[in-house]
Design brief:
Oligomer: single chain
Keywords: NADP, Oxidoreductase
Biased composition (Basic and acidic residues): 40-51
Strand content: 5-15%
Family: Belongs to the short-chain dehydrogenases/reductases (SDR) family.
Number of helices: 9
CATH superfamily: NAD(P)-binding Rossmann-like Domain
CATH architecture: 3-Layer(aba) Sandwich
Pfam families: adh_short_C2 (PF13561)
Organism: Zopfia rhizophila CBS 207.26
Largest sheet: 7 strands, parallel
Structural class: alpha/beta
Shape: globular
Length: 308
Amino acid sequence: MASTNSVSTQSQNLIDPRTRFSDLELSLPPQDFPVLQRDFPTKPDSGERSYKGRGRLTGRRALITGGDSGIGRATVIAMAREGAKVAINYLPDEEPDADDLASFLAKEGIQIIRLPGNLLDEEFCAKLVSKAEKALGGLDILVNNAGRTGVLNDDITTYTTEQWDTVFRTNVYAGFWLTRAAVKCMPPGSSIIWTVSDVVANPTSGVHDYAASKGAVASLVQTLGISLASKGIRVNGVAPGITYTPILPQGGLTTEILNQFAQGLPLRRPAQPVELAPVYVDFADATMTYTSGGIWSNNGGATAYTFS
C-alpha cells in the first residue's frame, strides 16, 4: 500500500489540465491576414519557458511550415530543444514573428534556418525542399503545418471560388507539393507530419472550406501512410481542437466569441500551442517505427463545436 508521502510526491510531478493556463486571459488582436503572434495582447504559450528537451531528436533535420507562430512555433521550439536542426517557412509578411522566434532561440545558442516564401506557388514549394535539404545537410522530418481558413460564415451561398481555392491550395496542395518533393530525398526512418484538425471528427458550422480541406488532408495522411511504407517513411497527422493561435482572428473570431465558446469546452479553455508540440515530437521520434497512417486527436475531450 502506497504511503501518503509517496502519493504526495508523485502528485507534485503531475499537471492538472483544469488549472493549467487558468490564469491566462484570452485576448485576440483584430481580424486580419496575416495575424502576427507578437500582436496578441495576451501571447499564446508556445513553450518558451515550459518545454524541456530530452535529446529525442538529436541529429535530426526538420522543415516546418508555418513555423513562425502558433502550433508551428511551438513545434520549432520543441524539436530544436530535442536536438533537431530546424528550418522554418513562413510568409514574408510574417517576418516580425520569425525575427522574434529566431532571436529568442539564439539566446539559448540555437540557430534556425529561415526560408520565407508563399506556399501557394508550386515551384517555390519544390525549391523550398531543396533549399532546406541543402541548408540542413539532409531532411528526415517534414511538418506540413501552415494553414489557412476563411472567415467564419455558415452561408455556403456567399463562399467564393477564390476563397475556396486559397484555403485548399494552402492546406492541401502545398503539403502535397512539399511531400512530393521531400520523399525523393528522405531516407528510410523519416517522418512526415501533417496538421489536420479535429473538425474532421467533430463537424463545425461556419468553416465549410476549412473543414473540407482538412478532410482531404486526413485522407492523404492515411493513403500516404500506406504508399510510403515501402520507402520506410512514416506519415501521421495531428488533429488539434480549437487552439489559441493567429488562425482564430484570421477566421473572424473576436475575444468575446472565443471566451463564450471556451465555456462550452470540457476544460473551459482552448488549447495552448505548447500542448500540441509533444505530439509532433512523438510522431518524429525514430523509435515510433510502427506508427504510420494515424491521426492523433488533441481536442481536450470536445465532441462538437458551435460558434454563435
